[in-house]
Amino acid sequence: MSVSEMFVALQSALTADQDVREEIRKVVQALEQTAREMLTLLQGVHQGPGFQDIPKKCQKAREHFSTVKTQLESLKTKFPADQYYRFHEHWRFVLQRLVFLAAFVVYLESETLVTQEAVAEILGIEADRERGFHLDIEDYLSGILTLASELARLAVNSVTAGDYSRPLRISTFINELDSGFRLLNLKNDSLRKRYDGLKYDVKKIEEVVYDLSIRGLNKEATGGVGGEK
Fold first, then answer.
1. From residue 170, how far is each of 36, 112, 113, 189 by CA, in Å?
2. How many Å apart are CA 79 and CA 67, to the nearest integer?
């Protein structure tokens, strides 16, 4: 094979790779649009009337996850199954956002932490990397850290809306989450930086709870904890 023929072959390989990446980008753009629509929907819970509509907003968000499943099924077909991490960067960010959205919906519904396996089921992908297109552990953890920031914001807005018990429940949840992350030996620099932000979320929520305490509203909140969430 001549040098010219070698480089023609190399160009063919480059072109094929670029075509694959372009097909992946198209699906990822659709996923990002769906994620934006879900985020816009769920942001409504931060407004006063939104607290009354949480079940309805969660139901609508779950309907969007049907679209996500279809889009992810399409994404799986765009590259060889054994090359997940070769193209992972293309969908890493949107997958982390989808994890956050799934975790936020589950928290709003039951005030519990969604598992990696449950998120994978919601998204219609695998939890085990050996089984193909899957939810990477670090993507799951990144999404959960985004949830912590969102709940810190929700704690503040709950007080504004007159819901004084919710910040106390959020505080308990976030402290348990923080304790869980302390058990991990994080090597990923990006994830480690995200985790460093968790302490600020914990502090922000503690300030909300302290403010309720000095205003005497924590007693009212404690009295209402047994009521409807």
1. 24, 10, 11, 27
2. 20
- Residue 51, Cα to own-chain centre: how many angstroms? 20
Range 156-181 average pLDDT: 93
Q: What is the pLDDT of residues 42-93, one digit of tens each?
A: 999 988 776 778 999 999 999 999 999 999 999 999 998 889 999 999 999 9
pTM: 0.90
150 assigned binding-site residue? yes
Q: Give the whole-angstrom CA distance, residue 170 versus residue 209.
A: 10
Q: How far apart are CA 198 and CA 182, in angstroms?
A: 11
The full set of domains in the chain, from first to last, is: 11-135 (1.20.58.190), 136-218 (1.20.58.200)
- pLDDT of amino acid 5: 87
> For 126-164, b where at least 16 C-beta lie within 10 A, e where not — what string?
bbeeeeebbbbebbbbbbbbbbbbbbbebbbbbbebebb
Distances (CA, A) of 177 to 8, 28, 147: 54, 30, 10
DSSP 186: -
